[in-house]
């Protein structure tokens, strides 16, 4: 990830409550989600905190290339 998210990015990002995100997925179109207590917002990004981020990226790249993983 490029560094801390701006306040605007945070409003449009699903992020873990604990841990430091090391993967950011950018959605091709905003996704409307309903959060706790019925609040809703549009997400443009999903931040993940993965134990093996390099393996995750390799699997995504293999899928995009059409290679078996």
What does this structure look like?
- With 69 residues, this protein is of the alpha+beta class.
- The protein has one domain (7-65).
- The protein is 26% helix and 33% strand.
- It contains two helices and three strands; from the N terminus they run H-E-E-E-H.
- It has helices at residues 7-11, 53-65; strands at residues 13-14, 23-34, 40-48.
- Strands 1-3-2 form a three-stranded mixed beta sheet.
- Strand 2 (23-34) and strand 3 form a beta hairpin.
- The longest helix has 13 residues, at 53-65.
- The chain is globular.
- The model has no long low-confidence stretch (mean pLDDT 88).
Task: Indicate the topology.
Elements: H1 7-11, E1 13-14, E2 23-34, E3 40-48, H2 53-65
Parallel strand pairs: 1-3
Antiparallel strand pairs: 2-3
Please give a handful of descriptors for the protein shown.
alpha+beta; 3-stranded mixed β-sheet; 69 residues
Low-confidence stretches: none
Q: Quick one: biggest sheet?
A: 3 strands, mixed
How many structural domains in the coordinates?
Answer: 1
Query: What Rg is obtained from the alpha carbons, in whole angstroms?
Result: 14 Å
Which percent range describes the beta-strand content? 25-35%
SSE string, helices as H and strands as E: HEEEH
In spatial order, strands of the major sheet run: 1-3-2
Helix/strand structural class: alpha+beta
Q: What is the overall shape?
A: globular
């Amino acid at each position: 990830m490029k560094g801390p998210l701006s306040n605007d990015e945070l409003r449009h990002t699903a992020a873990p409550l604990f841990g430091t995100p090391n993967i950011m997925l950018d959605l091709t179109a905003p996704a409307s989600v309903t959060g706790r207590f019925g609040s809703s917002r549009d997400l443009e990004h999903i931040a993940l905190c993965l134990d093996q981020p390099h393996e995750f990226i390799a699997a995504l790249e293999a899928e995009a290339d059409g290679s078996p993983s």
